[in-house]
Amino acid sequence: IVDRVALGEWPYLRPSVNPQAHSEELGHLMQRCWAEEPSDRPEFSHISVLLRKQN
Q1: Within a domain: residue 23?
Q2: What does the record list as coiled-coil region(s) (predicted)?
């Protein structure tokens, strides 16, 4: 990571997740939460609603 940053690159630091380990809706939510652009990330109130639906 340090070498890539020193070269002016920004390393992609998003985890990989097994799509069979969760619902499609939860997977989509995780991807939106990891968006590079903060304005593309969901509001916490939206996250809370979706997580409550999962339980």
Answers
A1: yes
A2: none
Rounded CA-CA distance 52/55 in Å is: 5
At 4-52, the pLDDT tens digits run: 778 887 766 777 778 888 888 998 999 899 888 999 999 999 999 999 9
Do the domain assignments include residue 4? no
Helices (H), the chain: 2-6, 24-33, 44-54
- In the chain the first and final C-alpha atoms are separated, in Å, by 37
What sign for the dihedral angle of Cα 42, 43, 46, 50? positive
Confidence (pTM): 0.67
Report if residue 25 sits inside a domain. Answer: yes
